[in-house]
Write a structure and sequence with these properties.
Helices cover 31% and strands 25% of the residues. It has 165 residues and is of the alpha/beta class. It has a seven-stranded mixed beta sheet with strand order 1-7-6-2-5-4-3. A hairpin with a 5-residue loop joins strand 6 (126-133) and strand 7. The longest helix is centred in the C-terminal third of the chain and has 15 residues, at 148-162. It is globular, with a radius of gyration of 15 Å. The protein starts with 7 loop residues before the first strand and ends with a helix.
Length: 165
């Protein structure tokens, strides 16, 4: 069990709907340039979490896993963009570099599923979310903030979710 501090937040979800709602709270806080890295095996709730996240961010688009097309782009009514990248099929750092993460981050928040596959090219400042299957309906998400922006984001998420520091 990790020692939790200002750089970490552990969340236990008891249903897909709770996972989605928690994602909505985080999505509401995202700004252009924010990088959210999701790590977890198949079935840990990554897509469900991103569906809530995108909804909380404000898109009306249908959210699905971009496994076969690599990047989904979601729009808000105000024309803001949210990028959702699935690195599951990326086979090399060279291939990953062609995705041009910097351009995506300059235009909007970026969510990366299977982020561990892109580790060598990811910015060092980011919010990392390790997702785990616990039981049929239960999931554990451990958020790890790397950088001041992400410490602040975790604090805001903590306050929005639990009403406390």
């Amino acid at each position: 069990m990790p020692i939790l501090d200002d750089h970490t937040l552990e969340f236990f979800s008891h249903s897909p709907e709770q996972t989605r709602r928690f994602g909505m709270r985080l999505g509401n806080l995202l700004k252009p340039g924010d990088l959210l890295c999701l790590q977890g095996e198949l079935g840990t709730g990554k897509t469900t979490f991103v569906q809530g996240l995108a909804q909380g961010w404000g898109t009306l688009d249908i959210v699905s896993s971009p496994t076969f097309i690599l990047v989904n782009l979601y729009r808000r009514p105000d024309s803001a963009l949210l990028f959702h990248l699935d690195a599951y099929r990326i086979e090399s750092v060279l291939e990953a570099e062609e995705l041009d993460l910097e351009t995506m981050l300059a235009q909007g928040p970026l969510i990366v599923e299977w982020a561990e596959r892109l580790m060598p090219i990811l910015p060092s400042e980011r919010l990392w979310a390790q997702m785990e299957y616990v039981a049929e309906e239960n999931r554990k998400i451990l958020f790890i903030a790397q950088g001041k922006r992400y410490d602040d984001l975790l604090l805001q998420l903590r306050q929005a979710s639990f009403g406390a520091d």
